[in-house]
Amino acid sequence: MRASRAGEGGEELQAERREKGRRKRARSDQEATGKERDKEEQPKIKSSKAVKTRKNVKNEKTKEMEEKQEEEEGEAEERNVKGKKKHGSAKKETREEDGGKRTVKEKAREEKKKKRKKVVETSSEQVTSEEDDNEEEDNEEKEVRPESLTPEELEMLKEAVDERKKLIQGLRGKPWSMKKKLVTLRESQEFVEKYEGALGKGKGRKLYAYKVMMTKKWMKFQRDFENFKTACIPWEMKIKEIESHFGSSVASYFIFLRWMYGINMILFCLTFGLVMVPEALMGRPYGTIPRKTVPRAEAASAMDFAVLWDFGGYAQYSVLFYGYYNNQRAIGWLKFRMPLSYFLVGVGTVAYSYMVVIRTMARNANESGVGDDNSFNFSWKMFTSWDYLIGNPETADNKFASITTSFKEAILEEQESRKDDNIHLTRFLRVLANFLVLCCLAGSGYLIYFVVRRSQKFALDGLENHTWWERNEVNMVMSLLGMFCPMLFDVISALENYHPRVALQWQLGRIFALFLGNLYTFIIALMDEINLKREEEKIIKFNITTWEASLYNSTVSENSTAPPITIQPADVPRGPCWETMVGQEFVRLIISDTMTTYITLLIGDFLRAVLVRFLNYCWCWDLEAGFPSYSEFDVSGNVLGLIFNQGMIWMGAFYAPCLPALNVLRLHVSMYLQCWAVMCCNVPQERVFKASGSNNFYMAMLLVILFLSTLPAIYTIVTIPPSFDCGPFSGKKRMFDVIQETLESDFPAWFSKVFSYASNPGLVLPFILLMVLAIYYLQSTSKSYKEANVELKKKLQTQNEENKKKNKLAALKAQTDLEEARKTASQSAELHKNNSASRQDQEDGEEDHGSCQRQYHNKNGRHPPPPVRDQDGQLPATRAPVPRTYHHVNHGSPGYLPGFPRQSEPKMHRVPSLQRH
Amino acid sequence: MDYTNDPVCTVPLALIVNMPELKENPFCGRIVESFSEDGMGNLSFNEFVDMFSVLSEMAPRELKAIYAFKIYDFNVDNYLCKEDLEKTLNRLTKEELTPEEVQLVCEKAIEEADLDGDSKLSYADFENMITRAPDFLSTFHIRI
């Protein structure tokens, strides 16, 4: 057979080589499975393969050749034309040959086995094989009948099916053209469809089919669920719109806002579901006990809007505040442990917040952890600085400008023109700027302290005889400071002449300090007030005992048999309840803060935009381009505002369970309001900063605020005894006594015993020590891991370089070898029968090279790349004498990206691309 | 148009580039070209879908890197040579930089990313560089 083909020239040669390669692979497959091949049958398989390969070449000569061969071996033709017929003929043939030595069935099975193997083999290289190849395969595959398969074959079939399934799943990530993807998908799906049902026998088969069906259903469900989830993400379209107009940094604020909204929603659910609703439904109704009743003195004005707006009157004596809750241990038919629930929700709020913030931080760090080195400064600037999301001309212009400036800055830095015209002046200015900022901070702190003290004086006088301003002074001053100080800082920072990114960080740090200072001054003032109230409380407590005694005495002295006088709960004298006062203060603060935010938004953004827009027609200079212009969206300021607002929520939530609800409302409104304001009256920032990288900065701030805001809350909970006549913990010495009470009365005796042992300092101290040790250990291991990581990175890089060099060398060598071989081949085409052995060796060598490449590539895509890579691209000179069919084998592969469509068929429109080399 | 007899029809580059999502992009022409089979920017439906599938958020980093390389490879020689970088830079900055600055930046970029010292960036160089870039994934996608 080989001899007959000998004269046909180079193309034949190629086909033969391929055939050999295939045969080799097939053989190795067979060896691996431990099945030996029947020698008689070998040529048949070979011939069928030869037919296949020749069909690919589509050459006139080969077609002639085909016919000849078909004459020689009659069955091969049938095999080609129709699969089923071929099956029959094969059976017949074998029967004739064997002459009854074996049973027909056995024989047929063996043949099938081989085909199965082929199927498995081709399925693994399916990706790279040509289409007509596949068609032929499909013809053959039809014959495989599941009844006659042995378990090993089943295994293999299963593997093949699984492989296809994996291929289908990973198809989206493959860098092929859509057409190829579609073809592969269809084929793989057909394959899977065909054999999935055929797998397994009897019981097993049913089970398998069931499993397959279930996985299909599950996949579909998952996809639907995924779609549902994306559809459920609120405000996604709004944010996308903003993103396309203003770039990712402005959008990052809104995403942050949405995230915050989610957290507050959960906090709200916790407090609403476990504290407010049970108390409102199952607790004693309004008006039954003094703490749930408006006192007689306030009753007249309790429904006035001014009072309600201040969260006094009916609002004060409602579930919104701490004081309303009763200290009854279990309420309702559910025996709901109200005080315990209140305490645990307070703790849970803080714990949940910590957990979420830290988890998000860790995830962010993971995502951006790779790009910490600065070794690709210019390349990154060049290839990743354009934000593909931008779809608005103005933003695009700004982006162009900011990219240009960033390049200029980088060039300046690169040139290291350490002129530093006057370093002393810059230093002086920076010191001066910091001094001024410190003055501002101190001044604002004092102002707040002063105002708070004054307001306390007003409060002692009675609020009624003061003006609106005097009553709301504290909140207004705080809001105004928060509004104007950042502007002042901005002006001052112009002195410093920092790099804009550094300047932004300084600015953020200063605003942070300002807010923090204000908040803590406020808290200190609040602590003063708490102490005052507690003094008051002592006096009232004393008065109450005397009042009760007198009441008792009077009833006793008048008439001992008369029923005791029932006192209206509204008339009972009561303490000042500092907890409710704290809650009220925080709620007022939040409300005024929200109001200022909205009003600044309306005045500063909307009104300004309207004025600029319409006064521009009749003004002496260009308002839009000149001085007032439109406002920019201040991402950092808004994020800071959000963070501080959240801090206040965390601080006050224990004393005012309504705070999370209020905050949810606020965030909801500001989402819509700010989206609208941004789209209608802001212009994109002049310096467009990228969002990534700053995310964790904000998160870190949030964490700091969370810590700082839980500190005072925990301090008050732990150290100050609760009021005697209001709130769920009244009558206890400390708020956390509720835990002990629960342990003693609700758990079995042994549990409290165990608990008391466990809380013994002798156990607690070692435990803490152990934790510290564990932290130390983890810390040090993480450090060493980091070091190892850096080391590995270095190694990887050097390895890469070395590999590259090696690859180049190998490619060079293989290329020259090939070249030589081809020369000899073309010189003695008619003698190549003798040469074929050496060529074959060479081919094998080439394949080895290919296989090592394949190993690397299988990680990315599962398809093995064509046998020769990386060669021709680097040695363009060797391309010229290569015959056309040689192209057929390895053109398209060399030096090509995996993403380029593999040009496997010599189509017309691909030709120019070949000539590029 | 007769779809029944000629189902394969393509949309020319000029039309696609005018999409609002691509309009402002300095590389819009390159994006479309690198997804078209003929290299001229005529997209069939499949290629169009392919383009936005690669540019979507779901696409893996490797895939995005491959196509980013193609987009920045202006002369389609499978290497990012200096001319490619110059073109990229000029498009990014609207030719605001002086030629000397452009030269400097291109040289620096090649120097940073070129591992095998052939003074042009192969795909491997590019991939190595781009996979470490912190902003690549967040900026190299289009939402439609």
From TrEMBL, chain A:
Compositional bias per record (Basic residues), positions renumbered to this chain: 46-56
Pfam family, one: TMC
Coiled coil (UniProt feature): 782-815
GO cellular component: plasma membrane
UniProt feature, compositional bias: Polar residues: 824-839
Annotated transmembrane regions: 259-282, 339-358, 431-452, 473-495, 507-527, 697-718, 754-778
Membrane topology, record value: Multi-pass membrane protein
Domain of life: Eukaryota
GO terms under biological process: detection of mechanical stimulus involved in sensory perception of sound; vestibular reflex
Extent of Acidic residues compositional bias: 67-76, 128-141
InterPro entries: TMC, TMC_dom
Localisation per UniProt entry: Membrane
Disordered as annotated region, ranges: 1-153, 817-917
Domain TMC: 577-692
Compositionally biased intervals (Basic and acidic residues): 27-44, 57-66, 90-111
Keyword tags: Coiled coil, Membrane, Transmembrane, Transmembrane helix
GO MF terms, alphabetically ordered: mechanosensitive monoatomic ion channel activity
Entry's family note: Belongs to the TMC family.
Name of the protein in its database record: Transmembrane channel-like protein
Organism: Cottoperca gobio (Frogmouth)
Gene this protein is translated from: LOC115013618
Automatic annotation (TrEMBL), chain B:
Alphabetized InterPro entries for the sequence: CIBP, EF-hand-dom_pair, EF_hand_dom
EF-hand domain span: 23-58, 60-95, 101-136
SUPFAM superfamilies with a match to the protein in the record: EF-hand
Main location class: membrane
MF GO annotations: calcium ion binding; magnesium ion binding
Subcellular localization, as worded in the UniProt entry: Cell membrane; Cell projection, Cilium, Photoreceptor outer segment; Cell projection, Stereocilium; Cytoplasm
GO cellular component assignments: cytoplasm; photoreceptor inner segment; photoreceptor outer segment; plasma membrane; stereocilium
Gene3D superfamilies: EF-hand (1.10.238.10)
A Pfam family: EF-hand_7
GO-annotated biological processes: calcium ion homeostasis
PROSITE patterns found in the cross-reference section: EF_HAND_2
Keywords: Calcium, Cell membrane, Cell projection, Cytoplasm, Magnesium, Membrane, Metal-binding, Repeat
PANTHER family for the chain: CALCIUM AND INTEGRIN BINDING FAMILY MEMBER 2, CALCIUM AND INTEGRIN-BINDING FAMILY MEMBER 2
Protein name: Calcium and integrin-binding family member 2
